[in-house]
Amino acid sequence: MEHLELFLLPLLILALLILPVAAVIRRRRSPKAAKNAFILNLCSFFAVLALSVILPIGGFVGAEETEAAANAVSAGSAGLGFLAAAIATGLGSIGCGIAVGNAAPAAIGAVAEEPKVFSKALIFVALGEGVALYGFLISFMILNKI
């Protein structure tokens, strides 16, 4: 029964969820039939969800196993914190590069035509650079929580 639980039941569930979508992708149905297939897909999803709640597969977990799992998760959460800090800094810097790359040439062109708009143009370029600072601040806050 263990192999059945691990391989066949998830494949059966996946097949039940994808079956209505496959007919739509093959374009053998009209838009009304596609709507009905979508509704059938949603109903089958909620039916599978209800069955998984009513008929749980697998055994229950004991207190010892729960404590070991909690220790393993807390050890791995520091790595996810470092990853989140890196993503915050990286995406903030990429956003800054995009913003400054678009605003700086426009500001230079505006200042070349009218020198009085230098301060306004500088503000727009500085706002783009602020995105990187916000990303750095968020990553700093994440690293302080680890």
List the helices and strands and how they pair.
Blueprint: H1 2-25, H2 31-54, H3 63-113, H4 118-145
Helix pairs in contact: 1-2, 3-4
Please tell me the overall pLDDT: 79
What Rg is obtained from the alpha carbons, in whole angstroms?
27 Å
Structural class: mainly alpha
Helix and strand string, N-terminal first? HHHH
Q: How many strand units?
A: 0
Tell me, what's the shape? flat
Largest sheet, described in full? none
**How much β-strand is present in the residues?**
under 5%
Task: Determine the fraction of residues in helical runs and give it as a percent range.
Answer: over 70%
Number of helices: 4
**Uncertain segments:** none
Task: Supply the key terms.
146 residues; mainly alpha; 87% helix; flat
Short description:
This protein is mainly α. The protein contains four helices and no strands.
Structure, explained:
The protein is an all-alpha fold. The chain contains 4 helices and no strands. α1 (2-25) packs antiparallel against α2 (31-54) and α3 packs antiparallel against α4 (118-145). The model has no long low-confidence stretch (mean pLDDT 79).
